[in-house]
Design brief:
The protein is mostly helical. Helices cover 83% and strands 1% of the residues. A two-stranded antiparallel ribbon has the order 1-2. A hairpin with a 2-residue loop joins strand 1 and strand 2. The longest helix is centred in the last third of the chain and has 137 residues.
């Protein structure tokens, strides 16, 4: 395109002087003309036809203006030319040839004018885009006016004709010049329009490329959005699946909680059954047979305790014998162990040296591997690192999600645990009470059957019978009084017995404490003696045997004395243990029943805890497995998604590369086409220039021939002006040629560099392929030629023989070395095996000794723990017994008050009944006709009284049962809590809580009693 612009500018420069060549023919005024051209721009889809204006009809032409030597072109002007008006003013008589030539030239001028006007007539609707380009023409202004039209030297006779002829010739020349100028203007306008259209075409192509690039970006964004939409849908589905799974887990946990609550309810029912059985046992003890049974049971317990005591004494004697033997064996083993220790220390030093060597080698390898990793990291691509970072972030986000899920599940588990503990505590404290039906009398656990507790039918008892033929009220009262007296006597006897047992317990505890202190002192002395013995043995090994014989003898004597002392202390220890065990057995058998109950409860708790741990472990394993599977699936899905994305990106890049290659091919084709068009345009312009030059030369020759009266001044001035114009034109032409050459050189250099780079790359690739193929072919040929040469074969045979000899020698040497090394290895292995056997024996002996020592320590610690536990339990039992006595006394007082109130109420009711009977008899005597009504009323009153009495008895029985149940539950809870928490602060808190609960229960019982009293009072009022 640059070349086209430069060629057009050169053509303008060559043609610009043509109208100036005939300036000398004009006479009156110099030329001060400005030739302006204004046009718009128009878009075309192809190259514009240069001869389009010449094919238009002549009816659409527009005129031009010529006035006093000034040319003005306007695309909207339609005025007639000034030359025609002048011709109309001056009549003339021209020869036929000149007139014909003038007509031909005028017609050609009209054709040029019509073409020029039609070229710009289509742009009349685009006035807003005009005035982009202007072409101004300033011709040479001579110092003196031409003398063509001077009339001074012309005579009056033939001057007018001569002037008319000269004027016509000048008009003819001016018409030719106008035609040439119009052609030049047309050519310039067409060239400029072509340039504008080519620029617009380039802009359109750029816009098209930009739009295609934007379209590709939008497509990529659309694909990315579609992929992200799919991923979000997949994530949404996964979240929904997780939600369903969590809901299933929650339902499973709720089912587990329900099962646990059902189990707790069953346990509560069993505990209530146990409490009911205990109440039955208490009721049986309240009768006369309780004392005899207690005596028999006490005798049986004493016999069993004695038998256990004798068996324990025998076991302890056997243990003492075994311990003495173990001490003797330990003294022998200590010497052997010292020797083994020395050997082991040597072996450890050797092993340390080997480890140090191994560590050094490993550190070197680690440094090498670190360097390799660093080099790999430096050489690794940025895209891979980014992908790895993205994967790491995704894995970390998944880990955070799983950790949050684990935390939420753990919080739910803790909440469920708290609910279960609250439920258990509420059941233990009696806040949640189950309705007691009639079936609890028939439900007894195996523990009650083993204890020998019988079932009692409370409904068939004498006090709860509802038969109409009941005993009279007075007999019932006397029987209740006798039963109360008997119960009070049994309670006094039991209290005395409990006080005696408590005193004995305190004595035995003090004695056991003293014995325990003595035992501790003895054990300390034994430990000190053992430590001294060990230190002395070490000193003996270190020191020489000859120099310290006296010290050894003294040490042996000390050892014997210490052994005697140890034996004495052990005998004392045995005696103390025997006495302590007797006391413990005597005191422990009193609380066997309570311990059994505690053990059963502990077993139940342990089972519940184990079940809970199992369920928790199973739940944790399930959660871990589920999370692992989810993470694995997510990882696999992410990897698949990344692979698909990478494949898509690679495919897109390949498509883009193919498109770019196509665009490059198209651009190359366009460049080649433009170069061809440029060459064709240059050739056509050169041809036109040659034609115009020839025409101009012909015209100049014709003008020279036909100029009749040229003057010397005009010729000299014309020659001067022409020489100056030619000099200026040559200078401008040279400058334009230089600029065009520079621009063309730049464009050609850039194109050549681009093409050279592409060609160089292709050439280098082809060269590398050719070189590789040539090298491979040359190598193959060389190898073939080498194998065919006899010298090569001979040298090969000689080298092979030498190699075989060397190999035979090396193999023989290696066999000898391996045989010798094997013999050495066998010897070393035998030595090592012997050492290892000795070490294994010594270690086995050490293990046996350590096991025996551990067993002895465990036994001693167990004995101490048992003693401490027994002591704590005895203290707790004494406290519980005292508390039970207090509670029982208060309970008896309350029952006594209740019985007194019941007796008073019964007396009042009996007196009222007697009064009613007297009134009935009186009424029977007075009113015989009302006898039936009185009998009916009497029967109804009796029935109401019996119902009231039965209700009162039932209420009293229910109050007694609830009070006994609450007391037993409190006792069991106290034992559990004391067994769990042994600190003094906790015991004090528990005692305070028990006192508060006891007070609350007393207040509740009193309130219930008042309610019952009010109920009975209301019944009596209703009866009255």
């Amino acid at each position: 395109m640059h070349m086209l612009v430069i060629s057009v500018s050169m053509a303008e420069a060559q043609l610009s002087h043509l109208p100036q060549n005939g300036e000398s023919n004009y006479v009156q005024t110099p030329y001060h003309e400005d030739y302006t051209h204004e046009h718009g721009t128009e878009q075309f889809n192809g190259h514009m036809n240069q001869h389009h204006a010449w094919l238009q009809p002549q009816g659409q032409r527009q005129g031009y203006m010529y006035d006093h030597g000034e040319y003005v072109f306007s695309k909207r002007g339609t005025n007639p030319s000034a030359v025609e008006r002048e011709f109309a003013q001056y009549p003339h008589a021209e020869p036929e040839r000149d007139g014909q030539d003038h007509v031909d030239k005028a017609s050609s001028r009209k054709q040029v004018q019509v073409g020029f006007n039609l070229l710009f007539n289509g742009q009349a609707s685009r006035d807003d885009h005009l005035a982009q380009y202007k072409v101004t023409f300033n011709p040479y202004q001579p110092d003196a006016q031409p003398k063509m039209f001077r009339l001074e030297g012309v005579g009056p006779d033939g001057g007018f004709d001569q002037l008319q002829r000269e004027f016509l010739d000048s008009a003819h020349n001016s018409a030719d010049k106008q035609q040439i100028a119009q052609l030049q203007i047309l050519n310039k306008a067409q060239l400029r329009q072509i340039e504008d259209l080519e620029k617009k075409l380039e802009d359109c192509r750029r816009n098209m490329r930009y739009m295609e690039h934007q379209l590709a970006i939008v497509k990529d964004e659309k694909e990315g959005l579609a992929v992200s939409l799919k991923e979000s849908a997949h994530l949404l589905q996964e979240a929904k699946e997780r939600e369903h799974q969590l809901q299933g887990k929650v339902s499973a946990l709720q089912l587990q909680v329900q099962t646990l609550t059902d189990k707790d309810c069953e346990k509560l029912q069993a505990a209530e059954a146990a409490v009911d059985s205990l109440k039955q046992q208490i009721a049986e003890l309240c009768r006369s047979e309780t004392l005899s049974r207690a005596r028999q049971q006490h005798e049986r317990d004493l016999v069993a305790i004695r038998e256990q005591h004798e068996a324990k004494i025998l076991v302890l004697q056997q243990k003492l014998d075994t311990q003495v033997q173990a001490l003797e064996e330990q003294t022998e083993l200590s010497r052997k162990l010292q020797e083994q220790l020395k050997q082991l220390e040597r072996q450890r030093e050797e092993e340390r040296l080997e480890r140090a060597a191994v560590i050094n080698t490993l550190t070197k390898r680690l440094d090498e591997s670190q360097q390799q990793c660093a080099s790999l990291l430096h050489t690794g691509s940025v895209q891979e690192m980014n992908q790895l970072h993205m994967q790491l972030q995704q894995v970390q986000s998944a880990m955070k999600i799983s950790e949050n899920m684990n935390k939420s599940l753990q919080e739910e588990l803790s909440e469920l645990k708290e609910h279960v503990t609250l439920y258990e505590s509420a059941i233990k404290l009696g806040v949640i009470s189950l309705d007691s039906n009639g079936e609890w009398d028939n439900q007894l656990s195996d523990s009650y059957v083993e204890l020998g507790i019988k079932k009692v039918n409370w409904k068939n008892s004498r006090f709860h019978s509802t038969s109409p033929d009941a005993l009279p009220r007075t007999d019932m009262v006397f029987e209740l009084k006798a039963e109360l007296q008997r119960l009070l006597g049994s309670l006094k006897a039991k209290r005395q017995k409990i006080s005696q047992l408590q005193e004995e317990l305190q004595r035995t505890q003090a004695r056991s404490q003293e014995l325990q202190d003595q035992l501790d002192k003895a054990e300390r002395s034994v430990r000190d003696s053992r430590l001294r013995e060990i230190s002395l043995e070490k000193q003996l090994e270190v020191s020489s045997m000859t120099a310290h014989q006296e010290e050894l003898q003294q040490l042996r004597k000390d050892k014997e004395l210490l052994q005697d002392r140890v034996e004495k202390l052990e005998s004392q220890n045995r005696e103390l243990k025997q006495s302590e065990e007797k006391v413990r057995a005597a005191n422990g058998e009193l609380c066997t029943k309570m311990r059994e109950m505690i053990q059963e409860l502990d077993q139940e708790k342990q089972e519940a805890a184990e079940r809970y741990e199992r369920t928790q472990q199973q739940f944790r394993d399930d959660v871990v497995n589920h999370v692992r599977t989810e993470l694995a699936e997510e990882h696999s899905a992410q990897m698949e998604a990344l692979q698909t994305e990478c494949q898509k990106k690679v495919h897109l890049l390949e498509l883009k590369l193919a498109d770019l290659n196509k665009e490059m091919v198209a651009v190359q084709e366009c460049y080649i086409a433009i170069c061809r068009e440029k060459d064709s345009l240059e050739e056509s312009l050169q041809a036109k220039m040659m034609e115009e030059r020839t025409k101009f030369e012909k015209e100049t020759t014709w003008e020279e021939d036909h100029s009749k009266v040229p003057s010397l001044d005009t010729q000299t001035e014309g020659l001067d002006s022409r020489a100056e114009l030619e000099a200026l034109l040559t200078a401008q032409r040279l400058a334009l040629q230089q600029e065009a050459a520079q621009v063309q050189a730049r464009i050609v250099e850039e194109a050549v560099q681009h093409v050279e780079q592409d060609l160089h790359k292709k050439h280098m690739e082809a060269l590398t392929q050719k070189v590789a193929s040539a090298v491979s072919s040359a190598r193959e040929c060389w190898l073939q030629e080498l194998t065919s040469l006899p010298e090569y074969k001979a040298s090969l045979q000689a080298e092979r023989e030498d190699w075989e000899r060397r190999q035979e020698k090396e193999t023989a040497q290696k066999v000898q070395l391996s045989v010798s090394a094997e013999e050495k290895w066998r010897r070393e292995q035998e030595v090592v095996e012997a050492e290892l056997r000795d070490a294994v024996r010594l270690l086995q002996q050490q293990l046996e000794q350590s096991k025996e020592e551990a067993a002895a320590r465990l036994k001693a610690e167990l004995a101490q723990a048992r003693a401490a536990w027994n002591q704590d339990k005895q203290e707790e039992i004494s406290r519980i017994q005292a508390q039970n006595e207090k509670d029982y006394r208060s309970f008896l007082d309350e029952q006594r008050c209740k019985l007194e109130l019941a007796l008073k109420q019964a007396k009042e009711e009996a007196s009222r009944q007697k009064e009613a009977e007297f009134q009935q008899l009186f009424r029977d005597q007075q009113e015989e006709w009302n006898a039936q009504q009185e009998s009916r009323s009497h029967a109804e009153r009796k029935r109401h009284r019996e119902e009231a009495l039965l209700e009162a008895q039932r209420g009293l029985r229910a109050y007694l049962q609830t009070a006994c149940r609450a007391l037993l539950v409190q006792a069991v809870d106290q034992v559990k809590q004391h067994w769990k928490k042994c600190s003094e602060d906790q015991l004090a808190r528990m005692l305070k809580e028990q006192e508060d609960q006891h007070k609350k229960e007393l207040n509740r019982i009193r309130g219930k009693r008042a309610v019952a009293h009010e109920h009975i009072h209301l019944h009596t009022k209703c009866y009255q």
